[in-house]
Amino acid sequence: MGSPDEVRRERLEELRRRMAAIPARGAGASARVPLGDASGGVHGAPLPVPSPLAALLPEGGLVKGAVVEYSGAGSLLTGLLAAVTAAGGHAAAVALPRLGLLAAAEMGAHLGRLAVVPDPGPDPLEIASVLLDGLDLVVLGLGGRAVPPSRAKVLAARARSKGAALVVTGGAWSGSVLRIDARVAGYDGLGRGRGRLRTVRLDVCVRGRSAPPRTGQLALTPREGRVEWVAGQSDSVYATATEAVG
């Protein structure tokens, strides 16, 4: 074992080697074709999300080059990763040790396009910075950290220059363009048959910098051997309940 600095450098070099091995991405953001885009826009069409969430987002997906704050149910974070990789994109989950790969696969994720770094060491932001160089989406767990505005600006600028979306969760971040809050509204299917949980319902609130909050309900339900996101009834009370958050 080397010194902590040597271990850190080796980890970063290994990540860079893995990024270079991703097809059509090793040459950097300027050489890659943005996911879902065949022609226009600085970074192309937004990244796909679970379909009922798309109706709540101003651009209908995650804008490339933007930073999004997320709080609440981990299942929807998994759904974001699944949607991007299922559509042919590449994504990473950093400092999210409770991320369930089985759940992601059941949502349709292509696990070969998903990098998982459950223990990024003392500086997960630096690991995320490396991953932004070659991926479409990076989901970063902050572990309760309050990220200094200076570092937040640097990482946001890197996401913007590389055309990658960055979703941060579990901490304090300044300067995000969008915030998504999700909370469990209820469960269906308990106590029926073998008692297996069948559906989870989430109340979701999306807030942008200049637009009024948009609220709705999403449901995660099994269907034909998979689990799918479907739209539920909107909950207008949730917007008021979350106004004090952030």
Automatic annotation (TrEMBL):
Tell me where on the tree of life, at the top rank, the source sits.
Bacteria
Protein name according to UniProt: Recombinase A
- Where does this protein come from, organism-wise? Nocardia albiluteola
